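Quick one, T. Sequence first:
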Amino acid sequence: MALKAVQVEVASWEVHKGTYGKDTLRPVTIKQVLDAQQPHPDAEFKIDDVEITQVSFVGQIRNISTQTTNITYKLDDGTGTIEVKQWIDADAAMDTTSDSTISKPKLIENEWARVWGRLKAFNNKRHVGAHVIRPVVDKMEITYHLLEATYVHLYFIKGPLDQIKAEGGGANGDAGEVGYGGGGNTGTNAQPMLNVSVAARKVYQTLKTSPQNNEGLHVQNIAALVSMNVPDVRKAGDELLSNSMIFTTVDDDTWAVLEF
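Structure tokens:
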């Protein structure tokens, strides 16, 4: 159901591609924000060569700095760090009878938060001006968001999933088994596996077939299962991550298979 909702949302972006930069909300990672292109200072930022205005992401709060006019949060999602600024409404802050100020959720360091806002640049330094920032209560929201951001990224660089299936993107002509990243036919003869080393294939198959919870497997567990040393497992994991076949979950050393 969640994937279908993402597909509908992406489809709406495709319909309005001509006016995409005027009103958008895109799920992203912090690395995507930092790598976004801006042709000139007055232009909208672009990710995957598509204009963005509003972005949404999750991150762990590393630091909170309160100023007279704003609160600056430093967020880290495992792909990068960025400052998020939320401006203080002086009138609302002085209104002690307001229900919104009383019930506003508290943000604390080392906890996760979700941000909705606009990417900005000042003095060659990027930050996000937050419209809304709230604590993440259910940690599964973190995993869901990273999957959603990955799905949208793959949509723009590879095309709609239905289109890939129709074009017979699977290995051996098995279009019905194709998927983004590691989905579908993922044996050693499958097309995505042709671009990775033997070690990466072993790690991938272990991740795909070994019993695990929703968080995936830690690199040390994988090393024990495939009888490899940890540095070699990390190297193999980097190959799989760069090919969008796995993704990190609770930390950089815990991975799960990416498939839809």
